[in-house]
Structure formats: structure tokens, C-alpha cells
Amino acid sequence: MVTEKGSENKEPARRLLSDIVCAAVGGGMEVNMKIIMFGAEICPDCVEAKKLLKDVNDIELDYRNITESTRVLKEFLSYRDHDEIFKPIILEGRIGIPFFILEDGTKTFEIDDYISLQRTESEQTNNSCSIDGKGQC
User: Fold this and answer.
1) Cβ atoms < 10 Å from Cβ of 96
2) Over the stretch 29-59, which tens digit does the pLDDT of each residue have?
3) 37: β partners
4) Strands 59-65 and 99-102
5) Among 14, 99, 101, 112, who pairs with 36 as Cys (CB 3.0-4.6 Å)?
6) How far is CA 57 from the centre of its chain?
7) Where does 28-94 have alpha helices with state H?
8) What is the average per-residue pLDDT within 93-110?
9) CA–CA gap between residue 136 and residue 35 (Å, rounded)
10) What is the DSSP code string of 1-59?
11) pLDDT of residue 35
């Protein structure tokens, strides 16, 4: 798993999500964890992640389609060109989507490391959009 903020450490984001859930349960308030997701509708992994996140009531998803506008593509490329998290992705010849930014600033490609998503058996298959069909976007 590759993340930027806290490197391999997922605890701050997990703690944040845990605190939000505890506050909601204890205080009866409505809670939303904000997540920015960069992706593309032509990427099966992105389509799957977007669908799963939209089905979670406690998540406010800000989906940014990198193929929809030049502005969004440039925003994504500014992360891809400058953030350490993308170095191995670039070396492997991958795009780096889906790419998630949690509300505490944590950046990751693996949203499952932070949020428990219920997947069906068909959703657990590798829907890779790489050229050779073996890797990820």
C-alpha cells in the first residue's frame, strides 16, 4: 500500500474516521467524511470505486473525472508530477487512478485501507485498464 501523508501509516485517517463515527453515534449528528477522488469513466477500477463510495451514506464524495475537462486533468497532473506517492506509479508506467485525498490530507490509491467497503464477488476481480491487462491504472 502506498500513501503519502504518514507514509505507510494509516492510523491518523482511521482515527479520524473512527472519531467521526463515534461522534455521530454518540451525538446523534449527521456525519460525512469528505473524499476527493480523481478517476476516469474509462477506467473500470475507478467506476467500481466511485459506485462503492457513492453507496456509503457517511461519505461525501467529490469525484473529479480527469477526462472530462482540461482543468481537472491539470489538477491531477500537478499531484502526479510532484507528489512522492506517484514515483513508483510513474516508474511502472501507470496513470495513478483511482487516486483519493481524504479530508485530513492523506493521499492514497487504496481506499479500502481506510474505509470498509462491501464488495460483491464480481467486484473483487481485477478490472485493470492497463495496456497489458495485468496491472492497475
Assistant:
1) 22
2) 455 889 999 999 999 999 999 999 998 888 9
3) 63, 100
4) unpaired
5) 101
6) 16
7) 44-54, 70-82, 87-91
8) 95
9) 21
10) --BSTTTT--HHHHHHHHHHHHHHHHH-----EEEEEEE-TT-HHHHHHHHHHHT-TTE
11) 96
